[in-house]
Amino acid sequence: MASRLEKIGSIYARVSNLLSKRKPGSIEKPLWFDIYTKYPPIQEPLWNRPPLDIKVKEIFYEEDKIRAKVHKALKNKLTPFNLADNRNNNESELPIKLYQDYVSQGLTEDEAIQKLTEDFNKDKQIMKNKSKMRWCLNT
Question: Where does the signal peptide begin and end (predicted)?
């Protein structure tokens, strides 16, 4: 249910009326106002207009699907990392690289996840050494 204000006019109409009735400089113009004025929508956004029936495409990379499987398998065993720090690889990239290595060796996806969780449960340091050795051999 919409409020009375939404039924009276759109946000653009209310803001433009507010700006025209105030003294210049007493109220700051919103960032979106000039863009909306220059490029108005094809249809005025009204509160009672039904939503469009548009199917939204899924945009997942293959890496995202792998990351989801790895995180689901390892649960809370991966430590959080700082997204702003891009100096070195984060801990979540290591299991993904190992997963990709296992799949490239011929294991199925389920077997690769199972082997990855077994390796991860054994010791994180062993996994890091495996990854470094593979990284050196592949370059």
Answer: none
